[in-house]
Amino acid sequence: MNRAVLAYSGGLDTSVTIRWLVEQGYDVVAVAVDVGQQEDFHAIRERGELAGAAEVRVVPAVDRFAGEFLARAVKANALYEGKYPLVSSLARPLIADEVVKVAREVGADAVAHGCTGKGNDQVRFEVSFGVLAPDLQVLAPIRDAGIPREKALGLAAEWGIPIAQVATAYSIDENLWGRTAEFGPLEDPWVAPPEDAFARTAATSDRPSEPTEIAVGFERGVPVMLDGDLTALPDLVRAVDALGGRYGFGRVDMIENRRVGIKSRELYEVPGALALIAAHRALEDLTLEREVAHAKPAIEQRWAELVYDGLWFSPLRTALDAFVDSTQEHVSGEVRLQFSPGECTVVGRRSDASLYDVGLATYGPEDAFDHRHAEGFIRLWGMPLKVWSARQGRR
Ligand code: ARG
After folding, report:
1. Domain ranges of the chain
2. What is the pLDDT of residues 106-134, one digit of tens each?
3. Ligand 1 pocket, 37 CB below 6 A?
4. Residue 171 among the catalytic residues
5. Which residues contact 282 (CB under 8 A, 6 or more apart)?
6. CA-CA 20 to 30 A from 260: which of 300, 347, 367, 387?
7. Mutate to test the pocket of ligand 1, among 79, 166, 180, 253 (most ligand atoms within 8 A of CB)
């Protein structure tokens, strides 16, 4: 009998995929990877079994997700198109890797996913599968058999798969780093996001009016402390995300360019991710030497693009991470973040490795900057333009 291991989310498409593969004669092992989504894994297991999986496995991977993926994303200040902190993009390579591990263990001949043909996630899964397990066949029935949402709903009803709770008006993906929503009323980019599209961030009317402040401590670019207490990264991310969410901070409404060429309207709730990246940037402002600070954003943008594009398992990602890591050696210290309704503001930063020199910066009596040097510097700095200007006959 052929055996397939499926990346299982517990949603409509992947549940229908289980039964579809069973109908094709596959023995299906469904793997639900816990990357911090607010889900009832007990219900997911039950749904997978009802759909016909021979086995449903829940793989705890929150620590790995934080340590290997989110820590790197923070160090790289990773935002796709300057806005999206790569919630789904970071999780897919990890899920692919966990699926391949199970496939090896159970001697599967195929791996499977439930993505459609229009999104980025199919790209991320299949490129990752191709690197990690080129010998395994890849099955993508939702895409390849052409099962649109309406048909999937019909099949689920016909096959008695309970999807009532999961078939919402939106297509949702969620993990420790944030929550994504697309589809339904959001498909019209002119329509304001309905309040029911949000789950992790409070509506305007429910936000506390009094601001709250926290201090986030970093060690070599990675958040490690919350208000002076050493905190494991998953707990720290969860805490900052929850606090930001209470203030309704971290909503992103964007039109983005998918790898497959489609522009799409996406809604993100990413309070923790945006707050931690803002804090990390503030600490870099204090600790990175000028030329490094100016060169790094280009690398960050490339990193975000490459991860978005499904190339996590690639020599370029490793090389860019080596660059990023070498910049983080002195990015240790603390940042004060203030949350107020809809906002998160950096209000202070300090570091033992700070390059900020009060003696050089001050306008007060302790001024240690030799003002006489400025004149000669500017004379040489502007010299080429003086020569040029004279040539234009402007003198
Ligand atoms: N547009 C985002 C990305 O490509 C979110 C994708 C969410 N995935 C999903 N299956 N709903 O990373």
Report:
1. 2-174, 179-350, 365-391
2. 999 999 999 999 999 999 999 999 999 99
3. no
4. yes
5. 335, 346, 349
6. 300
7. 180
